[in-house]
Amino acid sequence: MKKTILLLVLIGYFITNAFAQEWMPTNGPYGADVMAMVTGPDGKIYAGTRGGGAFWSSDDGNSWSQMNEGLTNLNVYALMINIDGFLYAGTLGGGIYLWNDGEQYWIPVNNGLEYTWIYSLAHTPEGVLFAGTFEGGGIYRSTDNGNNWTLVNIGLYDTYIPALAVAPNGHIFAGTFGGGIYRSVNNGDSWVQVNIGLEVPFILSLAISDDGIIYAGTDFGGGVFRSENDGDLWVPVNVGFTSTNGVNTLLINNADHVFAGTYGDGIFRSTNAGDNWTQVNTGINIPFIISLTINDDGHIFGGAYFGGAVFRTMDEGDNWTHHNTGLTATEVRALAMDYGQDIYAGTYGLGIFRSLNCGLNWDEMNNGLTAHYITCLAINNYGHLFAGTDWVNNTGGLFRSADSGENWTEIFNNITPYDIRAIAISLNDNIYVATYGDGVFRSMDNGDSWTQVNEGLSCLHLWSIAVNENGDVFAGSAGCNEGVFRSTDEGDNWTLVNDGLTTYEISALTTDYSGNLYAGTTPMFGPGGGVFSSSDEGDNWTEMNDGLTNPFVTSLVSVNNLYAGLIAGTEGGIFNFDGISWYDHGYGLLNTNVRAVDHSDWCNALFAGTAGSGVWYSPYPDGIEEKGEKLDITLIPNPIKDILTIRLNNHEQNQEYSIELFSMDGRLVRKMESFKDIEPIIVTDLTPGVYMVRLSNQSEILTSKFIKE
Q: Which of 227, 257, 287 is the last residue of a domain?
């Protein structure tokens, strides 16, 4: 550990000063968890997303633009347009915002709003506003367009309010999660429970027709209930409604056709007031529908979860088309760089995307990828890409691509039904896969066959795995209160190595080029968390949390160049370790819930995958834009067997460089000082595969790739 700290202290000036670069969003990948939708009087469609903020579309949903100026909380779970045409957004933890259309920014309107977790919004014909909260708040009312709010909970004994709706007679209905439905006949002054006939009291959605028929969508497979007498009596209306999932959203069109969006079974339609239902999912490939809205042309828009973005129908649900252009609100749980220009992003729900230009554009790479809930990515020395997934809707497993993501093959062959949480690849290309519930699997033949290796592994619920240069394997467990396991014989046997650890939920593991081991933790059972280090292969651990203000560590990456050292992604931002303490490296990062971090020397930047805002990047001081001009290197020959010659073009003669060769998994395999142009490098001893070469001096860093045959 001392060696690494001394190195990091020496470069600390560069880290804390030269690398104070702002984070900026890449252009995707496109997708969003659309939690709320509403249509404006001018025909614009508005979408609220989980982690990505708010978006609008003025072309019938074909394309979307972000509208987050002034919005300090990006979890928009409720949208409403009042009688004056004002747009309101309810957020989880940030309260309520009013959109200033003239100045194009959001204004917080939270005076009196003591509980700021907003799940639902509604207004009366007279312009009185109501806001429903998550458990612990209840219902707030504003009589002055949101300038002031008052809690109105008299008679309301359940404070989790997923749904609010106002009937034509002015009566207000509140759907609660666990307490059924409440009604107010006096503008919210008091509430009365109206649950006769309501067999399932877990209400997720409400919709009321122009003639006063009320529909309630429930959770846990309860389906839809209807009341034709102002809520006095409820009857189930589920003939043909085959969904066993929650009814998250309801919508009624001008023909009084009712549409129900479900969490897992898509959309159902009733043309006879709920008496019969038909599933209408043609064109919907992500059937987790959370929100619905309709425009004056009768076009219906459905917002989907798991990155599904927006589906549109122009024929009352018979056919749906997918629209996500501009919706940069994906949840990215995994990143991988091939130490060239290729960047891979694993999303939770949309599969894998690849960028060949540092995030300017992203292409979906899902051919053969039957499971789209990506949790981890890894690349071996041959450039083969491996993707682990969660099991969702009976699909999951481990996939391999030998052609840069163009095509995928499932290589786990259903040997385990458990989620895959991490992949590690050793220098000799052994592949280790950590599962949540079934321990570790090992492949010694590029994934063609697998062996379960759990001897001594007393906890099979794993979150992380890593391999050091000696081939020692480390597995991080979670939920068992046990911590880190080590294997010194390629996984055949495991030993618990926890001396010094005070938190035992290991969410991330990584090693640096000096052989030090780092563990990122997440406190599941009380205080703790943060990062721990070990300089003796896990025998002893030391807490290193000075300056780390968020203990929920999701990812770790060791960069170790002039501009970055150990980087930690957390649920509250990104931090850089300068050899003594952590400092906040999240300037400009609007979504601080970071799920993955990695770095690309080709792009000259750090990259972060977020929970709802796609991929962001922070350039090194010389920047992504300058990189293309500096990468003027000729490698002769390429591919190569024995001797590599590097020719520098458009550079002064006789300049000296330090040269480093990295394998595709980022490990340093060769380093030379005082290298000059056209000096041969013997690479006979390197194993076949793809390598990255990096040249650096005091003024520049140059990178390129070659293939060793």
A: 257
